[in-house]
């Protein structure tokens, strides 16, 4: 089936651009001076497709390090990469019962406590493979990690002394990297540096910078290795507080096709709750995309692009369909852009998220499995 067929068959598609992904990876490395990029491709690469993102970045941007959230995601990416020399980090809190499976698949978990390591060691006694680990330091995110120098020290000593483990990294995660008030950020940074320096952990192991840090604070923190997601996909996590200091190319475009065209007469209503009522006779189109596809219900009233012009979602977004305003009757199969460029107009995922009272990450990771992902250059 060709790409156009997949789009025609479903009446909707998510187009993803490999050249944009690669350009963003190169741009953020140049901006920060990073030598190593850990590409965060969790949640199916923020909805874009994890195996696609991994193979594209490995081949076209020489990326050697990837991060996902779970063992299952890690295994999927592992089987797509050419060999085991590519690193795959598991960022989230992990089930220690899977330690041997991680070691066998060369997955590198983030580790947040000494207890985790002690239990993992028991689970690894019969395993020939060593488990490479990234020690988490909790400096204020509150999800996982050592909270004191003493705790990190005991984890570090165990990993260095025990042949079942190998140190792969030590890291922290910023809670407010894209916030205008920098005090909390500065405290996290200072706490991290003070513990890793006190323990003499080599800087080559450190990774701190998420997208917000890499964009806005790269000259304040060590950025030899950066660990970024959102910027790779071409959006700015600090929007609207800050403009991106570098040009980011949006990787994804979310589009649908008008499959029905009809006229509403003055006084007729659209969708559940009959919240939209035509003031005069008007043309409308129906598109087979709804909140089950990730076009959220809070986007009722949002703009879409049709023939390079802004039109509106009329009434409530339903599970599988939306109704859009039209300037007049248009041909069946006319494209409707929910996210992306059409002519001179663009709807960014940042704009969509702001309208829908959420963040771009949630929009992109929510784009449903019913929507075919289609590769473009
Ligand atoms: C998701 C995540 C990232 C990537 O965050 P972005 O803001 O998308 O760059 C980095 N580190 C950790 C620990 C994460 O959970």
TrEMBL record:
Keyword presence, Glycoprotein: no
Gene3D superfamilies referenced in this protein's UniProt entry, alphabetically: Alanine racemase, Lyase, Ornithine Decarboxylase, Chain A, domain 1
Pathway: Amino-acid biosynthesis; D-alanine biosynthesis; D-alanine from L-alanine: step 1/1
Root EC class: isomerase
Classification lineage: Bacteria, Bacillati, Bacillota, Bacilli, Lactobacillales
Recorded coiled-coil stretches: none
Alphabetical GO biological process terms: D-alanine biosynthetic process; peptidoglycan biosynthetic process
Residues bound to substrate: 143, 319
Reaction catalysis annotation: L-alanine = D-alanine
A Gene Ontology molecular function term of the record: pyridoxal phosphate binding
Short name of any one Pfam family annotated for the protein: Ala_racemase_C
Keyword Hydrolase: no
Function: Catalyzes the interconversion of L-alanine and D-alanine. May also act on other amino acids.
EC number(s) given by UniProt: 5.1.1.1
Taxonomic superkingdom: Bacteria
Residue span(s) of domain Alanine racemase C-terminal: 251-376
Cofactor(s) required for function per UniProt: pyridoxal 5'-phosphate
Keywords from the named record: Isomerase, Pyridoxal phosphate
Modified residues (N6-(pyridoxal phosphate)lysine): 42
A GO cellular component annotation in the UniProt record: cytosol
Residue positions of the active site: 42 (proton acceptor), 272 (proton acceptor)
Family membership: Belongs to the alanine racemase family.
Stated name of the protein: Alanine racemase
């Amino acid at each position: 089936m060709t790409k156009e067929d997949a789009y025609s068959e479903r009446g909707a598609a998510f187009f993803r651009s490999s050249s944009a992904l690669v350009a963003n990876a190169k741009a953020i490395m140049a901006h920060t001076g990073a030598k190593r990029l850990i590409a965060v491709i969790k949640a199916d690469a923020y909805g874009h497709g994890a195996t696609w993102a991994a193979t594209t970045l490995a081949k076209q941007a020489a990326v050697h390090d990837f991060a996902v959230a779970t063992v299952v995601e890690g295994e999927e990416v592992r089987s797509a990469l050419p060999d085991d020399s590519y690193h795959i980090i598991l960022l989230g809190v992990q089930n220690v019962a899977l330690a041997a499976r991680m070691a066998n698949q060369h997955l590198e978990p983030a580790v947040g406590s000494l207890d985790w390591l002690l239990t993992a060691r028991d689970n690894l006694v019969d395993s020939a493979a060593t488990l490479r680990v990234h020690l988490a330091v909790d400096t204020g995110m509150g999800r996982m990690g050592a909270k004191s120098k003493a705790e990190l020290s005991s984890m570090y000593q165990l990993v260095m002394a025990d042949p079942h483990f190998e140190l792969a990294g030590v890291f922290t995660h910023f809670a407010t990297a894209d916030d205008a008030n920098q005090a909390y950020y500065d405290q996290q940074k200072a706490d991290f540096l003070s513990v890793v320096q006190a323990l003499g952990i080599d800087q080559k192991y450190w990774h701190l910078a998420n997208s917000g840090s890499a964009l806005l604070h790269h000259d304040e923190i060590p950025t030899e290795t950066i660990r970024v997601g959102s910027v790779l996909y071409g959006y700015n996590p600090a929007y609207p507080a800050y403009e991106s200091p570098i040009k980011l190319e949006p990787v994804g475009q979310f589009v649908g096709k008008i499959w029905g065209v009809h006229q509403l007469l003055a006084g007729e209503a659209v969708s559940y709750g009959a919240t939209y009522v035509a003031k005069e006779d008007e043309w409308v189109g129906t598109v087979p995309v709804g909140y089950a596809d990730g076009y959220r219900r809070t986007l009722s009233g949002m703009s879409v692009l049709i023939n390079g012009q802004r039109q509106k979602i009329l009434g409530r977004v339903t599970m599988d369909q939306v109704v859009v305003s039209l300037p007049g009757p248009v041909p069946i199969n006319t494209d409707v852009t929910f996210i992306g460029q059409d002519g001179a107009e663009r709807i960014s995922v940042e704009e969509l998220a702001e309208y829908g009272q959420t963040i771009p990450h949630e929009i992109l990771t929510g784009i449903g499995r019913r929507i075919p992902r289609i590769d473009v250059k």
